[in-house]
Amino acid sequence: MAQSKWGTKDQAEKSSKFWGDKAETTEEVKAKKAEPKPKAVTIDEVGKWLMTTENPNGTSCILLYGSDGTGKSGLSQATPLRGKGKMVIFDLDRSNMPIWEAYHNCDPNIIIKDPVVMGFDEDGNYTIDYLATMNRIKASLIWVKDNHEKHKVTVVVLDGLNKLLKYAEYQMRIDANVQVDGGVSMRYWIRRSKAFMEILEVLKGLPVHKIYVAHEDFQVKEGEAAAAVKANTNQLMDVKCFLERKDYDDQIEFYGTVDKHKSNSAFEGKEIKFMTVDKKTGQSTWDSEEMWSVLGWRPDSQTQKPKKKK
């Protein structure tokens, strides 16, 4: 190998890399040359994009959040927004199947998919492939965008935002080679949030009704500090509804409180009961008609205008 007063070429490259110099190794230079360059966007392409009518007008984007057992999955399956079309549920929490079997008679138009991908890690353990799982969800959403009319898909539900956020974190830790309880620099947390938010953004762009389901820690209360990723999730939504159950001596009542409603701010703060369970008989009474008349409310562009708070 060629020798200079600075040592061999290989030694110089190693030294440069160790000290963080701007000089790049031969391998890095070759890799950069091999990287595909971003495709240039032409004026004609921009004009065609601007003039197409692909905006998801007339669709809802709803976040349902609350603790376990407050009716989130049940309420999403009961939505009348589906009409005569199909609903696709990405069931990360694996909580939808019992509801589908018990209350919807295994309706084939409600399609429940578990997107989790399993595989072997580098140690030979059979475990969840977090990256493949997130890629499967994202690719499925893109497929729905291209095929929703052909297959009559009218609603997509992403059930399990907390688990999806955890998967994004676990993948980030794998990439950073950091243990679950180890400290992580801010740039890696940003990477986690980006992977999570990209999926939510892809879903938001679909020309169908969207329902996101999360636990109560996704609720962002006015005046309280919140993690940026959860604050961004809340900002993405058109409608937010907090679900809870109230336990009384003789019965349990289930309520939803509208935290946000872009189409009609007069609904914000409205509390609606949608289920009652009699403790003595075990019988339940379900009525989500009023709830969905509020959550799915949209103005008639010809006869109505959104109401405002007085």
Write the layout of secondary structure elements.
Blueprint: E1 3-4, E2 7-8, H1 9-19, H2 26-34, H3 43-51, E3 61-66, H4 72-77, E4 86-91, H5 97-103, E5 110-113, E6 118-120, E7 126-128, H6 130-151, E8 153-159, H7 161-176, H8 186-204, E9 209-214, H9 228-236, E10 239-247, E11 251-261, E12 271-278, E13 284-286, H10 289-295
Parallel strand pairs: 3-9, 3-10, 4-5, 4-8, 8-9
Antiparallel strand pairs: 1-2, 6-7, 10-11, 11-12, 12-13
Give the class from helix and strand content and strand pairing.
alpha/beta
- The CA-CA distance between the termini, in Å, is 81 Å
By CATH, the architecture of the domain at 56-242 is named 3-Layer(aba) Sandwich
- Which spans of ≥5 residues are poorly predicted at pLDDT below 50? 14-22, 301-306
Strand order of the largest sheet: 5-4-8-9-3-10-11-12-13
What's the helix-strand series?
EEHHHEHEHEEEHEHHEHEEEEH
Summarize the amount of helix as a percent range: 25-40%
State the name of the first-level CATH class of the domain at 56-242: Alpha Beta
In DSSP terms (H or I, runs of 4 or more residues), the helix count works out at 10
Sheet-strand content, in percent, reads 15-25%
Number of strand segments:
13
Q: Tell me, rounded to a whole number, the average pLDDT.
A: 86
According to CATH, the fold-level topology of the domain at 56-242 is Rossmann fold
| CATH fourth-tier homologous superfamily of the domain at 56-242 | P-loop containing nucleotide triphosphate hydrolases
Instruction: Work out the radius of gyration.
Output: 25 Å
